[in-house]
Write a structure and sequence with these properties.
Layout lengths: L2 E6 L10 H9 L3 E6 L8 H8 L6 E12 L2 E8 L6 H27 L6 H8 L6 H10 L6 H9 L14 H10 L3 E4 L8 H10 L4 E6 L4 H13 L3 E5 L18 E2 H8 L4
Parallel strand pairs: 1-2, 2-3, 5-6, 6-7
Antiparallel strand pairs: 1-8, 3-4, 4-5
Helix pairs in contact: 4-5, 5-6
Length: 274
């Protein structure tokens, strides 16, 4: 089935494929519409727009994934159809990325105190020109032999309750929605089933202008999808989705175009553009 895969990452944040490499993969998938939604950055979008011209059957939607804090948890909000070149918007994104660098350095210090030595220089090399994130630290830990797979590093060490987790101030989920709307974007709550008090936050963010809910996502099974569809109808939100592909090499990772927004539903999402 043809879909719009609206959740994809590149080396501009914590994905392992470059912009061009990712687009080459998408071109061979079931996705005719796709969005690159790197964390707190739009730095790959200009290059993506140019490279997508190589594939006339593909359509690129400018996107982003913003990280926001709540008490004891984290919420991610996806933004689509962004006027992303606005100066104030880019200034705020730069400050977010600076915070990610600080957090990564703090986490490496915590790992060292736990006897797990990881080189900051190596983490930077793995991240390349992209925004440094926890997956880059996880990959460095795998290289050093502490774990066999990147996802294993998150279980007890890099997740929010992990031994090496560190936090820096972020925006609130409400501010994330407002920021997306400030550049005429459409705001969608990402992977909602991972959020504590999911229903409460859907209601709160709906009041702030939330447009959609990520229903068709990654490994979500039929019962989860149906539950989220009911919520999307109850709150009058468009049910969107995507693979959340990073290319980290974890077994069973969902490939681009395997999961996504049905094309007829994507049309509903596009009609919300201001």
């Amino acid at each position: 089935m043809e879909v719009a895969d609206l959740h994809l990452h590149t080396t501009q944040s914590d994905g392992r494929l470059s912009v061009s490499e990712l687009i080459d993969v998408v071109a061979l998938s079931n996705a005719s519409i796709f969005s690159i939604t790197d964390h707190d950055t739009t730095n790959g979008l200009d290059a993506a727009a140019e490279y997508t011209k190589k594939y006339p059957h593909l359509r690129l939607i400018p996107g982003i994934e913003l990280s926001a804090d709540i008490d004891g948890d984290e919420i991610h909000v996806l933004g689509y159809f962004l006027d992303y070149q606005q100066v104030d918007f880019q200034r705020k994104l730069t400050s977010f990325r600076d915070g990610r660098i600080t957090r990564a350095q703090m986490m490496i210090e915590k790992l060292s105190s736990l006897g797990m030595e990881v080189s900051w220089d190596r983490v930077q090399e793995i991240a390349g020109d992209g925004t440094i994130g926890r997956p880059h630290i996880a990959l460095a830990l795998v290289e050093e032999g502490y774990f066999d797979l990147p996802k294993e590093a998150f279980v007890n060490h890099l997740n929010r309750t992990g031994l090496a987790y560190a936090e820096v101030p972020k925006i609130s989920p409400q501010e994330a929605v407002q920021l997306i709307k400030s550049v005429n974007g459409v705001a969608v709550l990402a992977h909602p089933f991972e959020i504590t008090d999911m229903t409460k936050w859907i209601g709160i963010l709906k009041e702030e202008g939330l447009d959609g809910l990520e229903v068709y996502y990654g490994n979500y099974g039929p019962s989860t999808v149906e539950h989220l569809l009911r919520l999307s109808r109850a709150y009058d939100l468009v049910p969107a989705g995507g693979s959340d592909f990073h290319g980290l090499g974890n077994p069973g990772e969902v490939r681009p175009g395997t999961v996504g927004t049905p094309i007829d539903i994507f049309d509903r999402l596009e009609r919300l553009v201001i």
